[in-house]
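Question: Send over one sample?
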Amino acid sequence: MSVLHNLTLSKALNLLKKGEITAVNLTEHYLIKIQNSEKLNAFCLKSSDVAISKAEYCDKIMKSEKRGKLCGIPIAIKDIFCTENQKTQAASKILQGFVPEYESTVTAKLWNENAIMLGKLNMDEFAMGSSNETSIYGPAVNPWKSKNSDDDLTPGGSSGGSAAAVAADLCIASMGTDTGGSIRQPASFNGVVGLKPTYGRCSRWGIIAFASSLDQAGPITKTVRDSAILLNIISGHDKRDSTSAKKLVPDFEAFLDDDIRGKKIGIPKEYQLNDTPEEITKLWGNGITLLKEAGAEIINISLPHTQYSLPAYYVLAPAEASSNLARYDGVRYGYRAPLESDDGINELYKMTRSEGFGDEVKRRIMIGTYVLSAGFYEAYYQKALKVRSLIEEDFNAVFSSGIDVILTPTTPTPAFPLNSKIRENPVEMYLNDIFTVPVNLAGLPAISIPTGLSKNNLPLGLQLIGPKWNEQEILNVAFRLEKEANFNYNPISWWEDK
């Protein structure tokens, strides 16, 4: 059915409400597309029977008062969200066979509104990576192709499968997590919208932890309006999560009026790097022009401690990871290494963790343990915390001066070929997060919107950053930028088995 092709969430809701399509029709449509798109390796778990059963229930209640706000909408979930009675592995061997008996708060909110889960999505192991190449399932593949090469491209990371699935139209929307850009960078690489809410806006309960002071759940969608709709659903205080804020949740969709006249848009000079490709600089300039023509005021700003963001992040995030991942020991759940009868408990720990964790996870555990160890705690970890405070103060000063939103590129490059960076130089891979990491360190909301194509016809995104608890501001500016940029490109379906 052509009406089902490349549906947005808001349009699907309208069609379902009018009775022009059914939840079963819609769900079957996506399940077939998922089955025919295994080349992308976006899904690591398909919940077909559960999805059809839920769709049938949605059709029964579609006209009743039981109908939820997402009734009949098929979405997919990053493999880092615990889902009741469904395998959850965080793309790691060490969680092999783990089936939670509970549901994460974010996904529970979706199911309570009658959304339908199509399956779980591929990701970097424990969300550690920028290319989806550290996954035990193998890499997800970007549905876009460069016009000059047939090489498979990275979908970005760690929410690579989440972004690839939306871009390839394998689901209406998806859920990801963002620790240092893991929603926004894949969104940019795949030509979709990725929203990272304020830290504490959404509960982290039931999300497998990477770095607890940085992780935040968020939606990946086809449009800004769709992101606003989902943010309304997943936001709110959760007493089970001590970092979940007791903040009023506004109606984010209601703020989308695309009027940005008089809004002050900050352009940080520190994001103007000497080695930034010309096409990224041009994209940024075009975005500035579009917002200015829409009535916004463009103001040059300074975020002086931006240059220290990556070093601080790659001290703090591994430190928290080394603590969080200490619980995986082969005793209570997940993978357990086979041992000889006379091996002791220490050998069990050593072999299980050695065999169960991938190289990138091991690297970060070792870095984190090192910076937290006696003699290095003050030299590295404490200094990184101080730098983090300075970065947050930079943003606070800018927003206190009257700036409404900050505009930057999302990534320093378009999507790159798989296997081109991770083995040669992991540090080069880390540089992909250079524009996104500061936001996580400061706990701010940010969104990536596709606004143009590279010289090789690959999607490029711009990032909007706002003050804490002001997602409605960045969503509305993004709504207008989306309208003006008119990004209406889609990848050619080379991956489908017809």
In short: The longest strand covers residues 446-453. The chain has 15 helices and eleven strands.
